[in-house]
Amino acid sequence: MTPAVRTQQLKKRYGSRTAVHGLDLTIEPGSVFGLIGPNGAGKTTTLRMLLDIIRPTSGTATVLGQVPQQGGPALRRRIGFVPGELRLEGRVRGRALLAHYAEISGPVAPGAIDDLADRLGLDLSRQVRTLSKGNKQKLGLVQAFMHRPELLVLDEPTSGLDPLVQREFLSMVREARANGQTVLLSSHVLSEIQQAADQVAVLNEGRVVAEGPVASLRLGRIRRVRATFDGVARVLLAAELERLPGLRDVELADGDAVRLTATVDGDIDPLVKLLARFRVLDLAVEEPDLEESVLQMYGSERGEEANRVH
Amino acid sequence: MSTEVLPIFRRSIGDSWRSLLGWSLGVAAALFLYLPLFPSIGGNGEMQQIIDSMPPELTKTLGYEQIASGPGYTQGTFFGLLGFLLLVIAATSWGSGAIAGAEESGKLELTLAHGVGRAQYAIESALSVLVRLAWLGLLAALIVLALNESAELHIEPANIFATSAALVGVAFLAGATALLVGAATGRRVLGTAAGAGIAVLGYVFNAIANQVSDAEWLRAISPYSWAYREQPLTEGADWGGLTLLWGLALVFVIGATLVLRHRDITG
């Protein structure tokens, strides 16, 4: 099956600054693909290249089987796009603005606009300039989803939306996937990617630093551990913990009881065996969220770079 | 596929009808203010005395030598001065706003992410500027025509339309310049500067040529001279001048289309 999006060694340079370094991405049709990374990582630049708003310096991208520049308007009708920095102004009313976008995108089914506006709680009779940031963002979502495009390219789509609307948005994404539409979603809100995406690529400084199924990134081998002990001296516990491999960020606090927080990287079994020898009042073992995993990846990346320099 | 025709053109007109109404009022006000005064100040020789007492450099700069005749008065007050100013400012602001302004406001990115080609966008934008200017030109011509008799202007009706075509031509050239520079740079302020610049330089070159006979060659590169040097209100359409104005404007529109196709949209 032709990938919905494929980039090969895709590169974008602005003068001496390289925004995207040789990006290789493959997005399967009917999947939700998350692009995450901090601001300035190259997410927006990459998405704009897929829409032919900007052109790559080198490398290729194919979108729905076509090169964006050659596919032209006909290709873009098959795509729904929410720009990263959505700015809408003017006296035009929401409904009239959407009617304009409906003319220049794929065919919109009757009632589709009202259905989407109802779902998101958007008043279409108001002038665009009077809308709040969140309501403008809703307009952006409606114009991207209304023609049921084969591919949705959404750049930070939930910025400015309140949590209830974010949840509605996530269910719209799931429905799109169920319809066989492909969704490419960029975000720096990692929980959003965690909930919506099948596959993830982590972008940092224009490079993919990690890629794979969202589960593989999230699970990892890292656990946060919190425990409270009774009837044990802090020094004794500290000495025991010293000997455990893969234990980091150990903090012990005295009080009525001894409190431990630590990060386990690797096998959890030795820690469990050690804990079992004491009276444990409370225990929490958590998998870190994507944010922590990503930070860890960036951390190790930076660490390696630092090592190379020294 | 969309079956609607000229979506960008229609949106542009729909977004700007209020401003067009304002410009229309401005044009009408200028004409209704000046032309009815002609019988009382221009036609009775009093005006000629005032003009004769003014420094000749000033009258030549303003193009007031013919002010005692109806066509000269209409040319000197409206087509050569206020109307020129109004239409050039409107054209420049519309021309620089159509591409560069839309790009700076982020509107262009979203529009071009839909099923709209770059060339289509530039051409429909230019058409929108042209249609709005043509409306102002037509309005001016109709008002002059309506006042022709009561204000004792004695202008040949066909010449009114010929002069209006020259006015719209010189304004559209300024607008097309603003569009081209805006399309090339994406910066509204540069488009505005270029559009206003070509109009002002044209006016200044023409004024210099009016005073210094050695500088007559400046008329050859002044769009203002292309429009008015043959005195179309008395002599009728100057096809050579009109061809230059409209031809160069067309070249600039094509240029805008080509440069927009070959660059990144920022904003």
Main attributes of the structure:
heterodimer; A: 310 residues; Rossmann fold; Alpha-Beta Plaits; 2 domains; six-stranded mixed β-sheet; 13 strands; 37% helix; elongated; B: 267 residues; mainly alpha
Which regions of chain B contain 5 or more consecutive residues with pLDDT less than 50? none
Percent of residues of chain A in beta strands?
A: 25-35%
Describe the strand arrangement of the main beta sheet of chain A, using strand numbers: 5-6-7-3-8-9
Large-scale geometry of chain B? elongated
Characterization of the model:
The complex is a heterodimer of chains A (310) and B (267). With 310 residues, chain A is α/β, with parallel strands linked by helices. Chain A has 2 domains: 5-218, P-loop containing nucleotide triphosphate hydrolases (Rossmann fold, 3-Layer(aba) Sandwich), CATH 3.40.50.300; 221-286, Alpha-Beta Plaits. Chain A contains 11 helices and 13 strands. In chain A, the strands form 3 sheets. A 6-stranded mixed sheet of chain A has the order 5-6-7-3-8-9, sandwiched between helices. In chain A, strands 11-12-10-13 form a 4-stranded antiparallel sheet, with helices on one face. In chain A, a hairpin with a 2-residue loop joins strand 8 and strand 9 (207-213). In chain A, helix 4 (112-120) runs antiparallel to helix 5. In chain A, 38% of the residues are buried. Chain B is an all-alpha fold and 267 residues long. Chain B has one domain. Chain B contains 12 helices and no strands. Chain B is elongated and about 65 Å long. The two termini of chain B are 28 Å apart. The interface between A and B is medium-sized, with 32 and 25 residues.
